[in-house]
Amino acid sequence: MGNKIVDHVKQFGLLQTLKSGIKKLVGFVYRSQKYIILALPKRDKAIDNHEDVKRFNEDDLQKWKANGDITSKEFTVFKKFLESNTKGYYIERNQKLAAWGFTQTNGTYTYSDYEYLLPNGVHILKNLFVKSEYRGESLGKIINQVRIAEIPLGHLAIVFVIRENRYAIRNLKMYGFEEALLVRHATWFGKWSNRKIKLIRKREVTDMIMLGFSQKQLIN
């Protein structure tokens, strides 16, 4: 638990960590979350790959579970990813799992308690994580480089990022990602939900992303 709190402070800052703690305390009554959807406009040039990054397979998962690199819960989640239109990428250091990330290419993407149906030609980068002892080595940037490189030219890469995650937003913008949509979800008593979507940029890219949402929930 202590390491998770430290990692959260490093990623989001102390103030946002405190706010998140308060949100959890009142979460049984009301929850609200905002996401920025960033998009990488269609590329006409491939990005170089990186030799340190390897692709997930189930044998890797079994090994990492056995040696304690991942928890049983992570094993179950990652296995489900690999079975459902999702590619996994990882980096090891001294034969220990150091960082990972996934790219979903089809189907329904689940973020928090909500769902997004991927339109044809849209790929979602998701679940990027670098273990705390390996942070500062740019491993997340390397995995992003490879994930982007393996998306076919002419297809669109997008990422859902919690609005407060300024570091993730900054790093994605280094590769040319642009803020496209702001999505706000609110839930009362775990039963009633409301979603509002605001356009940040009006362009062909946002039209394509919006195909995964109900047009009735779009506000200008």
Give a structural overview.
With 220 residues, the chain is of the alpha+beta class. It has a domain of 149 residues. 32% of the residues lie in helices and 34% in strands. 25% of the residues are buried.
How would you summarize the topology of this molecule?
Blueprint: H1 2-12, H2 14-25, E1 30-40, E2 54-55, H3 58-67, H4 72-82, E3 86-93, E4 96-104, E5 108-111, E6 114-117, E7 122-130, H5 139-149, E8 156-162, H6 166-173, E9 178-188, E10 192-199, H7 204-210, E11 218-219
Parallel strand pairs: 7-8, 10-11
Antiparallel strand pairs: 1-8, 1-9, 2-3, 3-4, 4-7, 5-6, 9-10
Helix pairs in contact: 1-2, 3-4
Organism: Sphingobacterium chuzhouense
Protein name: N-acetyltransferase domain-containing protein
Question: In short, what is this structure?
Answer:
This protein has 220 residues and is of the alpha+beta class. The chain contains 7 helices and 11 strands. Strands 2-3-4-7-8-1-9-10-11 form a 9-stranded mixed beta sheet, with helices on both faces.
